[in-house]
């Protein structure tokens, strides 16, 4: 390995993600860290073993990233690396089940003989926290310390890797990520130019731009409401009026949440208004995330509000127009965090291989591939990532990081489904904004950790 390995996001994640660092304590504790951690040269992941047992073994890996996206491409490269360094071991990689299926069936699958050894899974109290509390995830604390992963993925990102009684921020390690992510606005530069629209910097400018598109017969925002990201758009609107105290109360239970306060009321009423004005289609309630993305890729929609996980895929798949990104106009806070977690099944008989797999995905070689394909790696060789399009993403992540507000479905098990269904009803017009907020209020308070 090189004598000095530069980490693409080490300074970003250690310095800019100060919010994560401040939230890394358990909800009842004061923040333990007041300064960003010191960054030295990036540590290398532990070398994978060159010998393996003589008998053939199979490592089952499940994830839900597209093979054409940054994570998918880098993990295919990791598969080649793993099999080359582990003679007699085959990696069976399965990404056919998708985010929704894994999210809905994880508890059942991990409690069966069909469980994968290692799996990509969503972070937060409602997901990884719940599975850790159910005893379905392996406690990987010893491996984290032995392999130095806590020095590769740094600072407050640890908030979503550690859980105690199902609550993130402290306790044992049940997962680790190898990328960052955040929600932004993707836009079709050609359509913006054709209709005389400038990149908006305030919510008012965004709405004025959308009025122009509606007048021209275009639906401004591609939206998936049968799963995500409609509830993330609602959260963006809430965050436009939110402060750090509200985010801490909602995400970390530091004080009771008033779901009829200014921020939540504004978000719900504005979301309904956007549907009424034609900014979002009513039939988006039957559109999933994949259809939304394909609609944007086709040039049908001027904008798509979604996550950085689309970025590498759009770099590959959009060939008919120029596109770019900007943060939600006027917001200090936006949805985002470290990426989804690699978790290891508690009943896996291949835990040694599972940890080697995680190690390889964290290696500078694989991380640099991810970066060059449009991802947000945590341990890449910065000097080897030169694509201007990737640098555009990295710059946006720097701007986003101080205002990271996690995701709206994290605080309680089942809240994702509750948000999806209630936002759907708001879009359909079968719930008023106040009724939707009542429903979310009830579900949140009945299901959050007591």
CATH superfamily of the largest domain: Periplasmic binding protein-like II
Please identify the structural class as seen in this structure: alpha/beta
What's the rounded overall pLDDT mean? 88
CATH overall fold name of the largest domain = D-Maltodextrin-Binding Protein, domain 2
Specify the number of helices. 19
Q: How many domains make up the coordinates?
A: 2
Q: Would you count the extended β strands for me?
A: 12
Question: Poorly predicted ranges (pLDDT <50, ≥5 residues)?
Answer: 1-43, 46-54
* Major sheet summary line: 5 strands, mixed
Strand content bin: 5-15%
Overall form: globular
Distance between the termini: 48 Å
Assign the CATH architecture of the largest domain. 3-Layer(aba) Sandwich
What does this structure look like?
This protein has 19 helices and twelve strands. It has two domains: 10-31 and 48-179 and 339-380, D-Maltodextrin-Binding Protein, domain 2, CATH 3.40.190.10; 183-335 and 408-447, Periplasmic binding protein-like II (D-Maltodextrin-Binding Protein, domain 2, 3-Layer(aba) Sandwich), CATH 3.40.190. It starts with 9 loop residues before the first helix and ends with a helix. α3 packs across α15 (351-361), α12 crosses α19 (433-447) and α18 (415-428) runs antiparallel to α19. β1 (57-62), α3 and β2 (89-94) form a beta-alpha-beta unit. The strands form three sheets. Strands 7, 8, 9, 10 and 11 form a five-stranded mixed β-sheet that branches. A four-stranded mixed β-sheet has the order 2-1-3-12. Mean pLDDT is 88; it is low at 1-43 and 46-54. The protein is 43% helix and 11% strand. By secondary structure, the chain is an alpha/beta fold.
